[in-house]
Amino acid sequence: MPTPIVPNLWFDTEAEEAAAFYCSVFPNSRIVNVARYTDVGPGPAGSVMTVEFELDGQRFVGINGGPQFTFDEAVSFQITCQTQDEVDHYWQRLTEGGAEQQCGWLKDRFGLCWQVVPTGMDEVFADPDPERARRAMQAMLGMRKLDIGALRRAADGDES
What we know:
It is a single chain. It is built from five helices and eight strands; from the N terminus they run βαββββαβββααα. The protein folds into two domains: 1-69, Signal recognition particle alu RNA binding heterodimer, srp9/1 (2-Layer Sandwich); 71-160, Roll (2,3-Dihydroxybiphenyl 1,2-Dioxygenase, domain 1). It is an alpha/beta fold. Strand 7 and strand 8 form a beta hairpin. The N and C termini lie far apart (50 Å). Strands 1-4-3-2 form a four-stranded mixed beta sheet, with helices on one face. Strands 5-8-7-6 form a four-stranded mixed beta sheet, with helices on one face.
């Protein structure tokens, strides 16, 4: 059996709030365990130290470690969506209080970066016709939330 890889996410004090938010966004998600600081510290006794949670079966740990470290675009989580409705759902929910970025990237209200990507996008960019791939790439560079229909139309040279 392979050893599971569990991403650990460093928050200042919002690990529990973030875990609850992410569990509300993704199906089949749950908070597994909450551990609290004792009187030994380093956080205030009784405050949340770590939160273990699962997002659609993927385990995560949120750590309330203080303000020393923050998220940036060097690490992001990719959500591969089967439909445009799914893209729209995740985009809308994860940008609540966050910020849209270019090419399907966003930063949520906790500063964590996500890529919301429709299936079929890789085949558009890997098209053996380099002109089709170029047109699709040009279209994507003008998007924030990705639209697979618009990318395919761009690849086809359809300007409408």
